[in-house]
Specification:
About 65% of the residues lie in helices and about 0% in strands. The chain is an all-alpha fold. α1 packs antiparallel against α2 (about 60-90), α5 (about 155-160) runs antiparallel to α9 (about 225-280) and α8 (about 205-220) crosses α9 (about 225-280).
């Protein structure tokens, strides 16, 4: 008698992640996000101004409207991408129903994560403006004179007003280093550093007096008028920076909320799409 030995060959297990479906859903979610953001910009829900590195929101109420729009955009785009992922993924034959439910949920989250990473790469300037403004107290960019005036700089308009010359006192001539005996660019940089250093507190007596003397020498104003101008500009600039900081913090919370809602919508939609793919009920 001859004993027959039967050797069973096991095929390597297939991956539990259907990457083509995840990539397809991620691209659909990313493209839908861009479409909805373009639509929102067209109807006035733009969060970031093209002319400034700071959020283009004038109040916390406007920030709330923009934040709600971000959440709606995240839910719609992520739900569509998640559903596409669930419908396109492979069928898992012989897999328990609870495992299928978990895998579909994970596929939706993966599609959302891919779309989020792509969106962060494309919209890095917007995210940076929102989160850095909240984290750093809405610190404006501080370009030097060599970098030119074309950079985004929220302090520049206040410096222009601070050093606005009194042409009558200067005999109708614009102030120059030769006429006032000072380097105007150096004085502007010094004033910028002093104002930014005191953005969270009142100017000290020495700083206020030094700025007033500098403004008086550069503009031709009397010392009393220069002191009044320094006080006015300092108060207005600190109020503006404080408002930008509050709005940036407000928007950062809405951004986090929109990301959580997007992940949840993608997971639920992928589960629904997977159930439709297998011809079974969602619940």
């Amino acid at each position: 008698m001859v004993d027959a030995v039967i050797v069973e060959s096991e095929s390597p297990p297939a991956s539990a992640v259907s990457w083509p479906a995840v990539i397809a859903g991620g691209f659909v979610a990313g493209a839908t996000t861009l479409l909805l953001l373009a639509l929102g910009s067209g109807i006035g829900f733009s969060v970031v101004s093209p002319w400034s590195g700071l959020p283009d929101i004038s109040s916390t109420k406007a920030a709330t409207v923009a934040g709600i729009f971000m959440c709606v955009t995240a839910v719609m785009a992520s739900a569509l991408g998640g559903y596409i992922t669930g419908r396109l993924r492979m069928r898992w034959a012989g897999t328990a129903s609870d495992e299928i439910y978990f895998r579909d949920t994970a596929h939706g989250v993966l599609a959302w994560a891919l779309a989020t990473v792509m969106g962060a790469a494309l919209l890095a300037s917007a995210a940076t403006a929102i989160t850095s403004g909240a984290a750093a107290g809405a610190s404006p960019s501080v370009p030097t004179a060599a970098q030119g005036a074309g950079n985004n700089d929220v302090v520049a308009p206040y410096l222009d007003r601070l050093f606005r010359p009194d042409y009558r006192a200067l005999n109708g001539r614009p102030p120059t280093a030769a006429s006032v005996g000072r380097d105007l660019a150096t004085d502007r940089d010094a004033a910028r550093r002093i104002l930014l250093a005191s953005r969270d507190r009142d100017l000290s007596g020495d700083d206020r007096q030094y700025l007033a003397q500098m403004v008086s020498a550069d503009t031709g104003l009397s010392l009393a008028d220069a002191e009044q101008r320094v006080t006015t500009i300092d108060n207005e600039m600190r109020a503006t920076l404080d408002k930008v900081r509050r709005i940036s913090m407000h928007l950062s919370f809405w951004l986090v909320a929109s990301m959580f809602l997007g992940a949840l919508a993608a997971a639920l939609a992928a589960t629904e799409g997977g159930a439709r793919r297998d011809g079974r009920d969602f619940l």
